[in-house]
Amino acid sequence: MKSIELAAVQERFADIVWANEPISSGDLVKVCEKELSWKKPTTYTVLRKLCEKGLLQNVDGIVSSRISKEEFYSVKSEQIIEDSYEGSLPAFIAAFTSHKKLSKKEVDEIQKMIDAFKKEG
């Protein structure tokens, strides 16, 4: 999947859709008014832009995603590692853990992923 670049406000809007989908466009306007203090034209403008980017769809007034939240953030994470760490996951982990101590639970979860990968590979 190709990376889709979103501004912070567009990403927040997409999060709202993912949390509520499928949602009628009218209800989406109400949610955005409450959570983002947007007026109807703003909601429809951002919706149109994200539909053009291929992230969302609006079919007969029902808004849903074309790409899941998990897929989107997975690709975004891969792009960050590629752009900032020359594609090196170990370099990313080293940088991440130099500023944030991992809990035992997090270390155990990561170890389980590594063990599962070793079994598959």
TrEMBL record:
Signal peptide residue numbers: none
Keywords of this entry: DNA-binding, Transcription, Transcription regulation
BP GO annotations: negative regulation of DNA-templated transcription
Molecular-function GO terms, alphabetical: DNA binding
Family as reported in the entry's similarity comment: Belongs to the BlaI transcriptional regulatory family.
InterPro entries membership: BlaI_family, WH-like_DNA-bd_sf, WH_DNA-bd_sf
Name used for this protein in its record: Predicted transcriptional regulator
Organism of derivation: Butyrivibrio fibrisolvens
